[in-house]
Amino acid sequence: MNFAVKRAVINCARNSKAPKKFWRAGSGVRWISTERQWSTPLAKTIANAIEHQALKKKIFAHHFLSQATGPISIAAFMRQCLTSPDGGYYTSQTAGRDQFGQKGDFITSPEISQVFGELLGIWFVAEWMAQGRRSSGIELIEVGPGRGTLMDDMLRVGTVCNFKTLASSLEAVYLVEASPALRETQKQLLCGDNLIDQIDIGFKSKSKYFDLPVIWTEHIGLVPPGQDKSPFIFAHEFFDALPINAFQSVAPTQTQDSPSIITTPTGPIKLNTNNNKNTILPAATPQWRELLVFPAPPLTTPSSTEFQLSLAKASNPNSLLLPELSPRYRALKSHPGSTIEICPEGLSHAEQFAQCIGGSTKPGCFTKPKPSGAALILDYGPLTTIPVNSLRGIRHHKRVSPLSAPGQVDLSADVDFTALAEAALNASPGVEVHGPVEQGFFLGSLGIEERARQLLEGVTDEEKKVRLESGWKRLVERGGGGMGRIYKAMAILPEGGGRRRPVGFGGGVV
Ligand code: SAH
Fold first, then answer.
1. CA of 241 to the centre of ligand 1 (A)
2. Residue nearest to atom 16 of ligand 1 (CA)
C-alpha cells in the first residue's frame, strides 16, 4: 500500500470530519461516502462498524502487522441482521405484524397445518410414556417458537391435554425467544389476558388451558437445570436462523500469484491474491480462509448489493479454530477449494440440549445420575453432508440476496445435522442420537394421513377441506424441493445403548 493512502487513513481516524474509507481485502481502498444512501438504517450501522474496525486495525497494522482485515464474518453479519436490537429482522418487528404467513415473508409447517403440532404433541406423549411416565419434573421447552402455534397445537389439540397424568406432571412451559414482539404474540395465544410478570430469567405468565406456568427466556442456558427434571425440547426452524461461519480451503500457491474463482452464496468471486509478496508468507500446506462480508463500492449495476463477500487473505482466529472442531472438516482441509459452513451457536445449543437431558462429566458441569427428557430438532439441511453455500435471503416469499436490505430480509442457512449430533454426543455421555430422517418419513410414521383423514371427516366447509387436504400433503411431499424431503427430524434421547428406537425414527409406541 502506498504511503499517501496510509496517511489518509490515519488522518481520517484523527479527524472525524474527514471522508470515511474502507479497506477491501486484497484490492486496495474503497471510499465510503458519509452521504451514501443505505437501504436500511441497519445497513449503515453495519458498514460503519466494519469501517471502524478496519481503521482501528489498519492503524495498528501500520505499526505492528503486515496486513489488516476490516470485513466481518458472515456470522457477525447474520447476527446483526437477525437479532440486533436496532433493526434486526426478528427483534424489530411490532406485535401483530410479523414475518409469518401470506402477508409476511415465509410460512412454516405449524402455520401450514395444525396436524403438524398435534403430531409433535403425540411424539412428546409417546416419548414420555417410553421413559416410564414420570409424574413430576416434566418441562416442555421450545426454542424459537415463532407465533407460538406449534406449542398451542401441542397443548390444545387433544394430545397433552388428554393425558391427565402427563398434564399434571408438567411443571412449566419454557419459550426461548429473542423477539419481544413474537414473545407478545406467543403470550396472547398461549396465555390470553393473563398477566405477564418480569422475573430474573425473563418473563412469566400462566397458560390459558390449565394451571401451567409459561416462562420466556432469551437463551436456553437460562432455563434452570435440575437432576430431577425431564426437559422435552422442541426446535422447529430454529437452527437455520443461527449465524454461520463459512470457510474455504486454499492451496498454498493461491496465496501468491494465481487468482482463482470460487463459488459463494452470492455467486462466483475472484479469490484475493496478495499483491505485496513481502507481507504474507505463502503457507506450506492448504489453509482454511474465512469468507467475509464487506461494504461494496457505491453502485454500479442495478443488481449489485451494498455488501459483498470476499475470502480473507490470511488465516484469522475463526479459520484457525472452528474447522479444527471435527474430523469431518479436517478431512477436507487438504482438498483446496473445499467449502464448509459451521454454526457455532447451533453446536452450542445442541451441547446444551444434550447436557440438560444427560448431564455432563466435564469439570464444573451439571451431572445427572438418571438421564431423562428428549430434544426433537426439525429443520432443513442435508442428511449427512456439510452444508455449502447455503446462506439465503427470503423476502415476501421470494429468494433475494442475503446481503440485501439488512434487517428486512430473513436470513437462514442449511442445518448440519451430523455436526449437531456430534456436538450432542461429545457434550454428554448420557445421550444418544436418532436420525436425521426425512420429515415425510417422520410424519408418516406418526400417522399424519390417518389424523388428517379423521379431521377431514368432521369438516363440511369445502374451502377448509381443501386447505386441510393440501396442507398435510405439502408437509410430506417428497418430489422436487418438497418439504417431506428437504426437512429432516433428529432426536436426542437418554442413552440406552440404542436398544429402543423412538416413534418416527423406526420405533413404535411403547
Ligand atoms: N418455530 C417457529 C418459528 C421459526 S422462525 C415456526 O416454525 O413457526 C425462528 C424463530 O426463532 C423466531 O421465533 C425467532 O424470533 C427465533 N429466534 C431467531 N434467532 C434466535 C435466537 N438467537 N435466540 C432465540 N430465538 C431466536
1. 7
2. 144
**What confidence tens digit (pLDDT) does each residue in 344-359 have?**
999 999 999 999 999 9
Cα atoms in the Cβ-side hemisphere of radius 13 Å centred on 303: 3
- Residues facing residue 393 across a β-bridge: 400, 411
- Please state the atom number of ligand 1 nearest to the C-alpha of residue 99: 5
88 lines ligand 1 (CB under 6 A): no
| Contact in structure between 376 and 125 (CB atoms under 8 Å) | no
Using CA atoms, how far residue 423 sits from 325, 354, 388, 411, in Å, is 9, 9, 19, 23
Neighbours of 434 (CB within 10 A): 21
Contact yes or no for 119/451 (Cβ under 8 A): yes
Closest C-alpha among 27, 95, 491 to residue 296: 27
Mutate to test the pocket of ligand 1, among 90, 345, 394 (most ligand atoms within 8 A of CB): 90
C-alpha cell of residue 249: 480451503
Q: Are 177 and 144 in contact (CB under 8 A)?
A: yes
Q: Phi-psi bin for 421: left (phi > 0), alpha (psi -120 to 50), beta?
A: alpha
pLDDT tens track for 233-276 = 999 999 999 999 999 999 986 544 444 566 677 777 765 544 44
Positive/negative CA dihedral, 105, 189, 78, 423 = negative
Burial 314-348, CB ≥16 within 10 A → b, else e: bbbebbeebbebbebbeebbeebebbbbbbbbbbb
Check if 90 has its Cβ closer than 6 Å to any atom of ligand 1: yes
The protein residue whose alpha carbon is closest to atom 6 in ligand 1 is 146
